[in-house]
Specification:
heterotrimer; A mainly alpha (about 280); B alpha+beta (about 450); C mainly alpha (about 260); A: about 280 residues; mainly alpha; MetI-like fold; about 0% strand; C: about 260 residues
Chain lengths: ~280, ~450, ~260
């Protein structure tokens, strides 16, 4: 039966909407404005052209964060699956153990890796015992990827786990019963059924990775500058250049949208393929 | 005696849907009144207007002669038992029942006494400290009733309160509710779609359909003298047939003409006729008013329900004596057993306005069809005569038109459907059963439509 | 079969080692006498003592707690009210408002950070209002707001809509009905929304970094400037304390949850 929603209740959203408009939409509008104007307020594409010379940086950011995302997925998939098959108490404990580091400042966790990876650090000390090294690990691309994987791995595990606990054990048993081997079950049953979790996980790892500036700053040294570092320098570096910074931020947002669009599309095609 | 509650010309439209249409009603103090009708008929909406959760677009709600339209729900001297009880999950049984009393700032001791007394009435003594979600459906129901009644409302509103209970429990609760009502003499307004419940419990029944009151009366009156085919069909089992009122006190149907007690319909007017299955007596073939053959027999515990085929119509007859399938019987009834009612739909055919929109093309609603040799200028307004038989019910995806099914009545041979679309009602015949108050699809046999130009349109 | 059961345990062990190795290294070296991060030269508590006496860190901690507390309270109140409004909207309008709600959740933090910085710099030029307490409070309320909404909304949808009407029906005025009947039903959502807001606010670095200005120091920004100067064992001590606090909090919440689940 049609129920009349009190129009008065709907007005309760007004303060919230006003707040979001002023402090979310207006600032994003300002980013757009600055991206397309000169310091004098003239319309221009100049800001985007000046960003072109940082093409390598953009490419590198995308490359490193894609690598980190793939590694996260590969590491998290078995972990999520193993967790989803554990007892209730086991799952509860595992979830707690995986979330606990997330609640600590990620600056401190990354600082921990600085300690480990240093030339004089613990890992090199350990390798020394076997006569290896010292390896230079800090201030490399590898260290940056490691930092991304380390910080955002839980973001991949949690959605995968929460979708995998919904997969009925009997589905996998049924597939095995029909003669499917482990690999076949993985490709034809487990991955297609976990797809929504995979997509969420990829988004949650890729977006912060591609836009980070802290991880690259702390673990990559001066050599491994990413988009995030570039943007940060325009706003809090020696020169305040909001025009160039905004243009970079716009490009970053567009990049993320495009890449997420491709992933979503690839996945939905994949899914259709699997269905047939 | 003055009415305790009066509704005057209540009209309510929500999102372009006319939910209530000119509902007027007065209820006397101490009565057990039931709003009865199919889902979507407006009975719950009427209840919510009385409770103060909805305000009507037009019309007055009066309590003891005083207009209370603008009195907010929490100040009205009525209490409600909600459909799914709406018990407060965070409070125990005692605190749920005491909720209203605590707001009245009564002393602790008085609250305790009244709550305990009420729990005793609803047979829940000893359950005070129980969490409400630990109770069975029937017990939750009793808490809901106690919570409302403890405030000593002038009127208790009950919105399908027994709908969620199983049959056995429902029967018990019906009796219990009637006992409570007799004991407290509070006015009860009870909403249900269950005609049996309404007939058992009520002093007065208000039958509703599509936001309009169809009939108000005592259960016996509603059962014995239904005002139209809808009421007859909805209340109890009925044989409903197309008939023609030949003149006052004479009606013909099923191939015969019979004396009856009704008058004032005019001459040769199409009407509906209703005969209750238990009013018809099976006799020797020669002795009955009509002759038929038994086609089906079902034993119903106390009586046999028999289908008798007579002149192409299917009759339902209840009798304690069995006539086996295939036997020839006579159907006997007296003028008193024949109930004559106005048709729900005026006339036997649909008359729809259309327009010639192209050479040999006629449009109506948002449909158009071609008619060879029409020879009417574009823009001519035409009247379309569509026989109920040339409209077919089909699944919505194959349909010409999606329509709202207002009513469906079995007429002994076919179902008579009244559907609503583009602000017009259409009559159609079908052999299929459909869910009333839903959308269905219909398909026209365009070749069977008669096109008559309207004289006014030809000039323009 | 035996191998199959063995593999998961090893895998989980290695994963946890990966997750906790840097944390345990930090904690271990917080007790190290020398500043070295490679050689353990002797046990000491002196870094903890220095940490507590470090005014910069302590005042930053106080500021962070203050902002977290205020912003999560404001966000929870505003978000709960908004959730009630959103719950009463039609499908279309609700979709629009929810899309708006997801913007700060899905947008990269750095973009949220710089966009708000642009707005506050504009305010600064307009009314000579420097970035600091007010800009941080606004920024934190903004990125916290989605969490109370996303936590309260499902509770509202689970709630029987007749409950509020039942309270009115029993003579309870609207506002009182809301507090007596609706709030208890959605309280768990309000509380978890508040807790999430509080922890996100306390933990956020990126948006804080862009909106804090120079006058008002926040703990994550202070930590950032310290770790960039590399060796300072006070950071290790701070890590150990935070780790223990978080551990205690999570275990406490877990126990409470388990108890509640058992009760039901």
């Amino acid at each position: 039966m049609g129920r009349k929603k009190s129009p008065l209740t709907a007005f309760l959203t007004v303060p919230y909407l006003v707040w979001m408009a002023i402090f979310v939409l207006v600032p994003l509008g300002m980013v757009l404005y600055f991206g397309f104007t000169t310091a004098e307020g003239q319309f221009t594409f100049q800001n985007f052209q000046s960003v072109l010379k940082y093409g390598d940086t953009f490419f590198k950011s995308i490359r490193l964060s894609l690598v980190a995302t793939v590694i996260c997925l590969v590491l998290a998939f078995p972990l999520g699956y193993i967790m989803s098959r554990m007892g209730e108490a086991g799952q509860r404990t595992m979830l707690l153990l995986i979330m606990l580091p997330m609640w600590m400042s990620f600056l401190l966790r990354t600082y921990g890796w600085m300690t480990l990876l240093e030339n004089e650090g613990l890992i090199n000390r350990f390798l020394e015992l076997f006569g290896i090294g010292p390896l230079s690990m800090i201030n490399t691309e590898g260290a940056v990827v490691l930092g991304m994987v380390y910080n955002y791995l839980p973001f991949m595990v949690l959605p995968l786990h929460s979708i995998m606990i919904k997969i009925d054990k009997s589905i996998i048993e049924a597939a095995e019963d029909l003669g499917a081997n482990g690999f076949y079950v993985l490709i034809k049953v487990l991955i297609p059924l976990s797809l929504p979790g995979i997509i969420t996980g990829i988004t949650m790892v890729f977006v912060p990775s591609v836009s980070t500036f802290v991880i690259s700053r702390m673990l990559g040294g001066g050599k491994n500058v990413l988009i995030g570092d570039l943007i940060e320098q325009q706003f809090l570096g020696t020169v305040y250049n909001p025009q160039a910074g905004s243009a970079m931020a716009i490009i970053l947002m567009v990049l993320i949208l495009v890449i997420m669009g491709i992933i979503n599309r690839f996945d939905s095609e994949e899914m259709e393929g699997m269905m047939v | 005696m003055n009415p305790i509650l009066e509704l005057k010309n209540i009209t309510l439209t929500l999102e372009d849907d006319r939910i209530l249409d000119n509902v007027s009603l007065s209820i006397e103090d101490g009565q057990f009144v039931t709003f009865l009708g199919p889902s979507g008929c407006g009975k719950t909406t009427t209840l919510r207007i009385i409770a103060g959760f909805l305000s009507p677009d037009q019309g007055d709600v009066s309590f003891n002669g005083e207009r209370i339209n603008d009195l907010p729900a929490y100040k009205r001297p009525v209490n409600t038992v909600f459909q799914r009880y709406a018990l407060f999950p965070h409070l125990n049984v005692f605190d749920n029942v005491a909720f209203g009393l605590k707001l009245k700032k009564l002393s602790k001791e008085e609250i305790r006494l009244r709550v305990m007394e009420m729990l005793e009435i609803v047979d829940l003594k000893g359950f005070e400290r129980r969490k409400v979600n630990r109770l069975s459906g029937g017990q939750q129901q009793r808490v809901a009733i106690a919570r409302a009644l403890v405030n000593q409302p002038k009127i208790l509103l009950l919105d399908e309160p027994l709908g969620a209970l199983d049959l056995k429990l429902r029967k018990d609760m019906q009796i219990e509710l009637m006992k409570i009502q007799k004991k407290l003499k509070t006015t009860f307004i009870y909403v249900t779609h269950d005609q049996e419940e309404a007939l058992t419990m009520s002093d007065m029944i208000v039958v509703m359909k599509d936001g309009e009151i169809q009939q108000i009366g005592r259960p016996e009156d509603i059962y014995n003298e239904p005002k139209n085919a809808f009421v007859a069909d909805f209340i109890g089992e009925s044989n409903i047939f197309d008939a023609v009122m030949e003149k006052d006190f004479e009606v013909s149907f099923c191939g015969g003409t019979f004396p009856c007690l009704d008058s004032g319909f005019g001459e040769h007017k199409p009407v509906d006729v209703v005969l209750r299955p238990e009013d018809i007596v099976l006799t020797e073939p020669k002795e009955g008013n009509l002759k038929g053959v038994v086609t089906n027999v079902v034993f119903k515990g106390v009586h046999y329900e028999m289908n008798v085929s007579c002149n192409g119509l299917d009759w339902v007859v209840h009798s304690t004596r069995l006539s086996p399938v295939g036997s020839e019987v006579g159907l006997s009834f007296t003028p008193d057993d024949i109930h004559i009612m106005k048709r729900l739909f005026d006339g036997d055919e649909n008359y729809i306005l259309g327009e010639v929109t192209d050479e040999n093309t006629v449009s109506f609603f948002d449909l158009s069809f071609e008619r060879e040799g029409l020879n009417l200028p574009v823009g001519t307004r035409v009247s379309l005569t569509i026989s109920p038989k040339s409209i077919e019910v089909v699944s919505i995806d194959r349909a010409d038109l999606k329509v709202y099914l207002e009513s469906l009545i079995y007429k002994g041979d076919y179902n008579e459907l009244i559907v609503y679309t583009h602000e017009e009602s259409l009559l159609l015949h079908s052999y299929l059963d459909q869910q009333v108050a839903t959308d269905i699809g219909i398909k026209f046999d365009f070749d069977a439509i008669t096109v008559t130009p309207l004289s006014g349109g030809q000039n323009g | 079969m035996r191998k199959a059961r063995f593999f998961p345990k090893i895998y989980i062990g290695l994963s946890l080692l990966f997750l906790y190795a840097p944390i345990f290294v930090l904690i271990a070296f917080s007790f190290n006498e020398s500043k070295s991060r490679a050689y353990f030269t002797g046990f000491t508590f002196k870094w903890y003592k220095e940490l507590v006496q470090n005014d910069a860190i302590m005042s930053a901690l106080f500021n962070s707690l203050l902002i977290a507390f205020l912003s999560s309270i404001i966000a929870t109140v505003m978000g709960t009210i908004a959730a009630i409004g959103i719950n009463s909207l039609g499908r279309r309008k609700r979709g629009f408002v929810m899309n708006l709600t997801y913007i700060p959740v899905l947008n990269p933090e750095i973009v949220t950070g710089i966009s708000m910085m642009l707005l506050f710099v504009f305010f600064k030029q307009l009314m000579d209002l420097p970035l600091g307490f007010y800009s941080l409070l606004i920024a934190h309320v903004t990125f916290c707001l989605p969490y109370p909404i996303l936590n309260v909304l499902p509770k509202l949808r689970q709630m029987d809509p007749s409950l509020y009407e039942a309270a009115l029906d029993l003579g309870c005025p609207p506002l009182q009905s809301f507090f007596k009947v609706v709030v208890p039903q959605i309280l768990s959502g309000i509380v978890s929304g508040f807790l999430m807001s509080f922890t996100y606010s306390l933990d956020d670095f990126v948006i804080t970094y862009f909106t804090s200005g120079s006058g008002f120091s926040m703990l994550p920004v202070t930590i950032y400037s310290m770790v960039r100067k590399k060796v300072n064992p006070q950071i290790n001590a701070l890590s150990a304390i935070i780790f223990l606090l978080v551990l205690a909090l999570l275990i406490g919440m877990n126990i409470a949850e388990a108890k509640k689940a058992k009760k039901e």
